[in-house]
Write a structure and sequence with these properties.
The chain is an all-alpha fold. Helix content is 60%, strand content 2%. The chain has a three-stranded antiparallel sheet. The radius of gyration is 22 Å and the shape is globular. The N and C termini lie far apart (59 Å). It binds amidocarboxymethyldethia coenzyme *A (AMX).
Length: 430
Amino acid sequence: MFALREELARQFPGLRDEFRQFTQRHADTVVSEVTVAQVVGGMRGIRGLVCDTSVVDPDKGLYIRGIPIADLAHCLPEAIFFLLCAGQLPSPEALISLQQDLRRRAKIPAYVWDVLKAMPVDSHPMTMLSTAILVMERDSVFRRRYAEGMRKEDFWEATLEDSLQLLAKLPGIAAGIYRMRTRKGAPIPSDPSLDWGADYAHRLGLSDSEGNFARLIRLYLTLHCDHEGGNVSAFTCHTVGSALSDPYYAVSAGLNGLAGPLHGLANQECLQFVLGVRERFHGVPTDEQLREYAWNTLQAGHVIPGYGHAVLRITDPRFVAFRIFGEQICPQDEIFRIVEKIFEIVPGVLREQGKAKDPWPNVDAVSGALLYHFGLTESDYYTVLFGVSRALGMCAQLILNRALGTPITRPKSVSTAWLKAAVGQTQQAA
Ligand code: AMX
């Protein structure tokens, strides 16, 4: 099998022609209707966007290029990037070539550290990550080549180039942010003998005598890689990219969306919730204690972090994959046991309350507990890990969109007055 660039160069021209012909042939076919609830409710469920990297089935969970995420949990995250872009897992040779490519590009420009050091000491790690990416935009190949008059057919290649540069540097930057924010010392140099995820674990600098922390980081990076195109971070990245802003602009913007408490920041809030339970009950609570605690949380007007989902209606398979890891590695860990207890009790409480459409845990309900077990206790860092992983999906989506020639995003907004008038006309007609 070919290396990534050659594989994409082989696939994309045919894909682009096929996509163009399909859209020309079926341009006027109606595939979705829009209700008032969707217009005012975050466009939920409107089919208005193509994303081929992954699909979220409400009743089955995440599929990456047609493969259930549970079947990919053992894969290296860089192999997943290949899969996201090319629709197939890499051969051993193609994987090695991608890993070598990433290693070659891993050196982080000194100005990135200068900018990060100049930021206020209480800057959130996500602000630092997004800033570091944005500041590297000066090196964008896409922007330079676009200014030179690059052909539209070559957009994907410049996007791939920027994406590889960005992805190669992200673990080192993210690990450096961790060490700066937690005062653990200078950035740790890359170990070129390690894969992308294990090198990230190594550069965080936490002890890992048995290699299980590296396993966890790889698993984390694989499980969070992508979640369709309509979630806040992916859609933001897509929209910014659709203006032909380069991947540095687009991924940085996507990460700013990921930093929100209803999206990627939930993992930080989940761990805080679990620690709150431990502090309140001095350990693992009884069923009755936890039930009351959950009700009190809801009655105080708070959400239970880690539960519910905009699309899923089942226990998130990514939660299941992490839970299997926890059961193997740290079944007696107190925090992990509290997570298990929450899983037993909270869905029942949410069902009884009857508001949340999905009472089941999402991926964030457990990931923090596992990181905590290995000494990564600073929960405000967790979204950075999520962001490093999600950059794989965001970049892959950008590359595919540039290959297909996806136009600028521009949905039509309407005024409330227009909406009221439209409803009136529909009622008169009925
Ligand atoms: N606890 C309490 N109430 C919840 C809830 C939860 N875990 N999940 C949903 N609800 C409430 C909503 O707040 C909403 O209440 P409202 O009508 O008073 O506004 C009602 O149930 C209906 O919401 P929904 O349609 O089921 O969910 P949604 O699509 O609007 O939001 C999500 C989805 C994830 C934001 C929501 O379930 C939530 O806030 N969960 C907790 C935060 C969380 O875990 N986020 C992580 C999401 C995954 C990710 O991006 N990492």
